[in-house]
Amino acid sequence: MDTLNKLCCVVPPASAGEIVAPSPINEDEVKKSLIARGSSVVSVDSSDGFGIIISKDVILTTSSTFPDPAAAEGATVNVRTPPAASLELKLWPQRFFVTNRDLDLTLVACDPITTSDVSPLMSDASKISRQSLEAGSKVYILGYPRGSKMGSKSSAALGEGRVTVKEDKFLRIQTDGLVWASGSAGFNEQGQLAFVICNPHQSFAAGSSSIHGEERRDDKQSGVSIGDVCSRLIQV
Questions:
Q1: What is the pLDDT of residues 129-167, one digit of tens each?
Q2: For residues 118 and 156, is the Cβ–Cβ distance under 8 A?
Q3: For residues 51 and 53, what is the distance between their CA atoms, to the nearest angstrom?
Q4: Which of 98-102, 126-130, 213-217, 228-232 has the lowest mean pLDDT?
């Protein structure tokens, strides 16, 4: 399937013994580039769910939002496009749908992206992390705080955090105080797509936050690396 080929073109991790020279990091430039990619984070019109556009016709979201193809049938997602505009995309689960409830992640086909204002997060291999995130790694989260609504004038927020624990399936992320909605995108220090926020225990009542961050509770969250998204969701 063409959709699977697009998603499997992720650059593989650097092999053992390969020395990858770190690139100089300009934090301000990284943040600026990530904010510019905020239109790739979408909201689900029929629920409080969020997701990210990872190829021109595939959305990565949560299994708690779409646990099966029937739940996604007829659903649409809202894409914020500059300046303060929006685009509605219809989902097509009959074309492509795969979910993993253990990871709380779902991949589902959508209308093809036809505007240059939206850049799918996995369309450029150079912008995808080749290295595993280790404990202590600085990360960025691009998305919406849990409990927020993507209004007509709202745009994706950018926050920071650090990996505290690396487990078999999940990363544990200590954020900067906000509790991010599942489906938000995670990036490494270089600004490369590295993981997606998830809630494997589906404990959505455990914390909440507004778009401005007035409410701040449990700031340790789970994430799944993009490599595991491909290996665990696609190779099923």
A1: 767 788 899 999 999 887 666 554 467 889 999 999 888
A2: no
A3: 7
A4: 213-217
Q: How many residues does the chain have?
A: 236
Phi-psi region of 192 (alpha: psi -120 to 50; beta: other; left: phi over 0): beta
| Secondary structure E strands in 74-154 | 76-81, 85-90, 97-100, 105-109, 138-143
Task: Please give the single-letter amino acid code of residue 174.
Answer: Q
Strand, helix or coil for residue 183: coil
**Does pLDDT of 60 surpass 90?**
yes
Residue 25 is which amino acid? I
Cβ distance 172 to 224 under 8 Å? no
Rounded CA gap, 102 and 77, in Å?
A: 23
Q: What is the pLDDT of residues 172-209, one digit of tens each?
A: 999 888 889 889 999 999 999 999 999 876 533 333 33
Domains of the chain plus CATH, in order, are: 40-109 (2.40.10.10), 121-234 (2.40.10.10)
DSSP annotation of 13: P
In the structure encoding, which two tokens stand for residue 105, read together?
Answer: 């992640």
